[in-house]
Structures are given as C-alpha cells and as structure tokens.
Amino acid sequence: MLDAAGNWVKERLAALQAFSKLSFDAFASLFSKPRYWRETLEQMDSIGVGSLTIVTLTGLFTGMVLTVQSSATLDAFGARSYVGRMVSLSMLRELGPVLTALMVSGRVGSGMAAELGSMVVTQQIDALRSLGTDPIRKLVAPRMIAGIVMLPVLTVLSNAVGMVGGFLVARFTLRLATSLYWHSALDAIKPHDLFMGLLKPLVFGYIIVAVGCYQGLTTTGGTRGVGESTTQSVVVASVLILSTDYFLNLLILKFVYP
Amino acid sequence: MPTLAISFRNVFYTYPGNEDYTLRDVSFDVALGSTAVILGGSGSGKSTILKLVLGLIKPESGVIEVGGVDISGLQESALMPVRAGIGMVFQEGALFDSLSVAENVGFRLREHDKLDEQEFEERVSRLLGFVELGKFYDRAPSDLSGGQRRRVSVARAMAHSPGLILYDEPTTGLDPITGSTICDLIVKLRDLEGVTSVLVTHQLRDAFQVVQSFVMRKNGAFIYNRIEDVELLVGSEFIVLNEGRIVFRGLQRELFRSDEPYVRKFLDGQIPVSVIETEGD
User: Fold this and answer.
1) Residue B270 confidence class, pLDDT cut points 50, 70, 90
2) What is the dihedral of CA A63, A67, A68, A69, to 10 degrees?
3) Domain boundaries, chain A
4) What distance in Å separates residue A152's CA from the closest CA in chain B?
5) Which of A154, A205, B97, B170 to pair with B8, CA 20 to 30 A apart?
C-alpha cells in the first residue's frame, strides 16, 4: 500500500519534472537558431482565427446571461443602472479569461495532444529526430508562442463581445438607456483590472499549450493512447486553469490592487 | 579513420516501466561497407538496437559507438552531427502526414541545406527517380500504398547521402513482390552508393535476398544477380536475437549449420527443411 503510494508520488514528480523540462526547453530554443516563424504563424492562425467562432459565441452568451441574472439581484436594491459595471468587471477580470481558456483548451489543447500523440505512435517524432530536427524547437516552441500571444487577443475579443451581449439584453429586455449601460460599464474599468484581465490569459495560454504538447509527446499505447492523451489534456488543462486562476487572483488582489 | 560503422559493447536496455531487460549484454560490430541482418521474433529487441544507434534512446549501461564516436552519453544537440551520417527507414515508413511526398523526401534538405527551389526540385526528383516514384512528387502520403510509403521512406533516408542506413522491418506487411522491390532498393543502395546497411527483419526470405543479391549498372540499366552458393557469401553478417540476447552471430552458412535451439526453431519455422539441408551440409 505504502509502496504503491510512494510509486504514485514518484511518478507524479517525474511527470512534473518532464513537464517543466519541456517548457524550459521550448523557451530556451527561442534564443538560438533555427527558429520556425512560418510554423509559428500557422499556429497563430490555427489557434487565433480558428477559435474565433467559439470564443465569440461564448463571450456573447456569457455577457447576455450575466445581465439577465444580475439584473434580478440589482433590481432588489434599485440598482439596475449598475448592470453595465457588473458585466464589464465580471467579464474582464474573471469570466472572459477563464471561459475563453476553457473553450480554447477543449478545441486547441486537445487537438495538439491528438496531433503530437499520433506523430509519436506512428514514429514521426522519431523520424523528425533522426532527420536532425529537434521536435521541441519545431513543434512545441511555435505552439507555445502562438498560445501565449493569441489567448490574450481572444480574451479581449471575448470580453468586448460579452459587453455587447450584455448591452443587447440591457437595452432590449431591461429597457436600460444605452448611455447608462456603457457609462457604467466603461467607467468601472481601472488599469489594474486590465492588468488582471491580460495577465491571466498569458498564463492560461501557456498552460493550454504546455499541457497539450506534454500529453501528446508522452503518448504511449497506440491509437488508444492518443485518445487517452487527448482527454487527459483537456482535464489537466481545465483543472490547472481553474486552480491557477484562484491563486492568480490572490496574488494580484494582494500586490496590484490598491 | 574508423573501420567500424557501429560497435556495441555490453549494452543493456530497459524500457521505462518494464522490469525485464529488453536488451541484455548485447555486443556486436558492423564494419564499414558491410551489411548486418538482425533477425528475431517480435519483441526480441531488434528495433530497440536501431533506436539506440540513432541515439533516440540511451542505453542503461554499456558503450555504443557510431562511426568511431561514443554516443552513449551524448546530449540531443551533440547527437545531431552523428545522425547526419545515418539514414533510417522506419516501420510503416513514418512519413509526415502533413507534408507532400516531395517535402517528405527533401525534409532534411529544406531544414539543413539552404537549397534554392530549382536545386531542391532536382535533388528530390532524382531521389524519387531512384525509388521509381517520380510521378508521385506532389502527392500526399495518405494517397500511397504501403509499399510506396516504404519506398518514399527509403528516398527520404538517403536524401543526405548517409554512409549508414538502418532498415526497421522494411518489408513487414507487404506482399512478396512489393517486399522484393524494397530488398532490391537496399541492394542498390549498398552496391551502387556504398552504404553500410543494418537490416532488422523477421522475414528470412527477404534477408537472404538482400545478402545473396548484387546489382551492377550496365548501359543505364540495373542488372541484378543472385549468388546461390552460400559458401561464397562473406560480406554480410547475421545476428539472431532472442529475448534481448544475441544467440547467434555469423555468416549465412554458419547460420544454416547452427545448433542453437532458437536459431533452429526460427529457421525451421520459416524456410523448407530441404533448403537448409542442401545448403547447410
């Protein structure tokens, strides 16, 4: 029993070490040649442009439902005019970054794990290495840059669409004046909210790509293994995103907020 | 100048998570310009040897030299120059799905030699011509048959003119005629390009075809011949693996005469007894 627990801990620590090494190697590879800019642009296209639809829809409906839900509570205090503030701050600080990251993890992180996992089981990664190309440099680093750059962009988009979604409901269902909504929404945003709203997606972008690539590259057990890596990449990334979000909140509220 | 292409000394290897050794105390040499045939059943550790030669995995103990360089403890970046001298034909080909046939074949040329487009096309067309797949330049790997994929893989492995090519079960899963064309390619590379070859297989028929055949170029055509008398065959060595141990090393005539039980079982299971008796005695 103790042995099994010991082995489990040992395995987890080894995985953590391998995960950290993969991240470190990917970043370190950016400081020397060759660099794969074409692959990086392709990944940016795949992560960014490819995720536009789901991110827009997620943002839109989140903003809309936030307005519907919060208006009932705000009405109890006669504070319906604050609904814009409620939507903008919730989207910017919390829901925009987290929901975008979760959606992108489901779409992109799983795709990376599946693609790299298939490459492992069909020996394409070995072939790459035998042809003198470092798979981390060619496959992981471009995805890492693309993830870290594109997730903040997607999050900003999601926030904006969310606020518009909130506005549509506020304007046409709650009959709130346009200027009242936007005034409240935009005035509430302070620089530290923007900082929080942009730092989080940077970290989440890294988590999604690093987990997806790590799960893919450590795939064993043929096509069944590819399926497991794909599922695992979404589960691990989602849990990491939600837990990191909590700790980031603690840190930012303590050190950045006045 | 090293005279050995590959040298293994007391190599042990275990795959992570396995308790048993995949390779136990494996020692052998492959001389420059020669052919080594590694035989054995599935899971005997044959392919593991090729991965060790490429430095894709590291031995648990023992020394592996490739072209006179001890690669056992080398970092990935230090292994790159060693790999530049090696070509590898993977099981099932391991072609990159996302690239065309030409981009697969010219992968190394694109990555390492900065060729202009015209030079790239010429080189790749010549390589595809060598494996007789010139028409497939722009096709996707998914459009190819199993045999064609292996041939593209051979073209990719020879693109940078390596001195050593490793073949991992290149004919497994192919029909005998297609398998035979792959064997002809191996012979062609060995005899016309002077490539040292390591052929891992469990197909005795194909191993014998590679060892017994030779090819000459005459008036632009390739003329294949086969030496039937095994006594004359000296250039190629057979290595038989069983459960990670080398149970036999020697020439084909010695293989036929071996009393080693696993070798006997392996031979008896695959080729008609009459052939062994007449050729072995």
Assistant:
1) low
2) 100
3) 34-255
4) 28
5) B170
